[in-house]
Amino acid sequence: MYPRIVINLPKLVHNAKTVTSFLKARGISCFLVGKVMAGNKKVLSRLASCGFTYLADSRIQNLIRLKTIPLPKALLRIPMPSEVNLLVDWVDLVLVSELETIRKINQRAENRAKIIDIIVMFDLGDLREGIFYKNDYINLIEAILKLSHIRLRGIGTNLTCYGAIIPDTDNMNALVAIKQTIEEKFGIVLDIISGGNSSSFYLVDQLPDAVNNLRIGEAIFLGKETAFGTALLGCYQDVFRLEAEVVEVQDKPSYPIGTMTRNAFGEIPHIADQGKMTRGICAIGKQDVDPVHLTSLDPAIAILGASSDHLLLDCRKKVTVGDKLGFRLDYGGLLQVMTSSYVHKKIMKNE
């Protein structure tokens, strides 16, 4: 059934074990950030025994779907007040930044006779979630420590995802300084100091000793760190392959004919006139994945663009209707196709 995403499970398991072993040898625990799998239980259950301490996702729906996987569950996205009831029922640890939401979690947890662990997030300059590190946070921590059914497990940060600020020794030391201030002020010990995601992987051997956790997704699934896109030694970069079926092959001009306006997505296209070409169409489009996230596995096949349902190709070799063409995806593309119900998921259990 096409289009489909082919998942090489043995290679993925190898990557997971390689990453967790590498981090464990350096005293760093690892959350399995499985959100790119869109709650795929067959894949994530196989990874559960690879050395991770938590199964983490941004969607509570996925954590509920994965409830039988024997790892504690962590909610990555700052929680919505409207999902607090579900959070308390299904989540063990949550990343937080807003006191009023934390108080709502505490109230629900008290009603359910349950303790919820939290990691307070600090924004070290990427300007996504967290308390801005130059602002006062002592009053927040003091208020948290007074709550009866909240346990402050640690602090964390997220870098690169929005502002493209890479982790470095300066911002990691800033996180450690926050840890030290909190511990000295309140006479407590923070168990988890979470230094970011796969973009922190390149810095592992230079991380301060106090940073003892990373939340890892892309390094496992695509076999590369994300600060510079460097392939990780000993990991596979070809765990996933998108396959789509050719539905049309025609010789046509390369430049549209007539008065050009906006396309179906409100964009004014910029198309180069390359003369006559053999244009192919595969049955997959922007409803499933934006073509900017795809790379053709065949150098003789170039991606021109896409509409909602059609992927347009420049075919510099013989292609016929019914052929199956392969594409590599980046993290954004993998997230999209795994989320699309129109893309079949094919799991290879053997090499």
How would you describe what is shown here?
The protein has helices at 9-24, 41-47, 60-65, 84-90, 99-111, 138-145, 169-186, 218-221, 331-339; strands at 4-8, 29-33, 54-57, 73-75, 93-96, 116-123, 131-132, 150-156, 192-194, 213-216, 240-253, 276-282, 294-296, 301-306, 311-315, 324-329, 344-348. Helix 2 links the parallel strand 2 (29-33) and strand 3 (54-57). Helix 4 crosses helix 5. The chain contains 9 helices and 17 strands. Strands 2, 3, 4, 5, 6, 7, 8, 9 and 10 form a 9-stranded parallel β-sheet that branches. Strands 1, 11, 12, 13, 14, 15, 16 and 17 form an 8-stranded mixed β-sheet that branches.
CATH superfamily of the largest domain: Alanine racemase
Contiguous low-pLDDT stretches (5 residues minimum) are: none
| Overall structural domain count | 2
Radius of gyration: 23 Å
Oligomer: single chain
What is the count of β-strands? 17
CATH first level of the largest domain: which class?
A: Alpha Beta
The sequence of SSEs as H and E is EHEHEHEHEHEEHEHEEHEEEEEEHE
Number of helical stretches of at least 4 residues: 9
In the CATH hierarchy, the third-tier topology of the largest domain is known as TIM Barrel
- Tell me roughly what share of residues is in helical segments: 25-40%
Major sheet characteristics:
9 strands, parallel
Could you say which overall geometry the principal axes of the C-alpha atoms support? elongated
Q: Mean pLDDT, nearest integer?
A: 96
Distance between the termini: 20 Å
Q: How much strand?
A: 25-35%
* Helix/strand class: alpha/beta
In CATH, the architecture of the largest domain is Alpha-Beta Barrel
